[in-house]
Automatic annotation (TrEMBL):
Organism classification: Bacteria, Bacillati, Bacillota, Clostridia, Eubacteriales
UniProt KW keywords: FAD, Flavoprotein, Oxidoreductase
Signal peptide: none
Protein name: Glycolate oxidase
Residues covered by the FAD-binding PCMH-type domain: 34-212
Amino acid sequence: MEYSQLKNIIKDENRVILGEHIEKEYLTDGLALEYGEADALVFVKNTNEVVNIIRFANENLMPVTPRGAGTCLTGASIPTKRGIILDLSKMNNILELDEENLNITIEPGVLLKDLQDYVESKKLFYPPDPGEKASTIGGNISTNAGGMRAVKYGVTRDYVRELEIVSGDGTIITVGSKTIKNSSGLDLKDLIVGSEGTLGIITKITLKVIPKPAASVSVLIPFDNLKTGVNCISKIIKSNSNPTAIEFMENNIVENSEKFVDLKLPCNNGNAYLLLTFDGEEDEISANINKTREVVINNGALDFRELNEEEALNAWTIRGALASSICQNNEQVPIDIVVPIDKIPQFVEFTNECGKKHGIQVIYFGHAGDGNIHVSAIRNSMESNEWKQRTHKLLNELYKKSNEFNGLPSGEHGIGLTKKEYFEKVTKDENLEYMRNIKNIFDKNNILNIGKVYC
């Protein structure tokens, strides 16, 4: 069957690109380190087009790789079996804002930053806040993206109310509900969230939004060492001070980021830092900051600095550039392992040991409030084959240790292609079998995102 027949479905020839005319950026992910091959790239604009493309692909057993903004870091958007790249970035309309019921309905190609700007202009708030603001909401749902605010507000899954999806045979299914409560049979919505395009193509999304907090204040807390700082985290949470975000970072990485963005933290008298944000009403924020101050000062903090608006912006800019400052023009392998909060110091120490053992530079920082540790292995000038061999050994040890700590391979990036091997090693065979059986129901001919996660 000729892929050129896709032009009979999509009448606009500019939205169907065939074979060698597909630009390289559509064959990779946000890291642009690995590339696949594809027979066709199709830009869809509505659900009907998605249905027709999927039916055509299913009838002719053509693989389909869904794609949003292509910002993923795990190879989920890389086509592994050629076929069709289904690009949903042009399905980017905000369809309805229901301010009475605090719901917003959108298409999957809407960018996170555009959604946040829109709802905040209406004095509303969409809390999930992954670092890549140019990602699509469809992509966020597909990986159950988290971000820095997860400690207080939860992750993407907690804000998804209803989804329209197109299954592997082209059937339109609506899962979830626009209601707040739903105890009416199995909630199929939660199977779709985090499924990375292996079960269906998301074509319409209804999300929960909340009233915008009145104010926000950030706090920087230096410590003599990371272990002392991380040991304060559970105490902060137990104090019921309700921080929006708790991030950890060490000074050697901070210094690189400061040079990279040409900014400075407002205090530099520590070897490690916790960076926190509190939001809500001003009295509530003040009370919560006081609780936190008492906890950390009594448990080894060197200082406690409430940041003004400019200082907070600079501090979060430095935090946001930690990986980029080390990895500019340098290949990296990003990892987003999640472990219980009390295991963070041990896991970080183990990561250091593994890096030295295998001769690989590793940097780490992360969302301390939910145990999500971001580790990057840095290639520097290492020869290609040696780099691959060493990182493979390093990753095997890190994923094995996280499993021993009752952790998981991914907190928010997903498994995709690059983590599949490690995911399968630490996941029970019966769990993988159930996942594959579920996929068979949604996608009997196995055409959707082949080779990713558990496929």
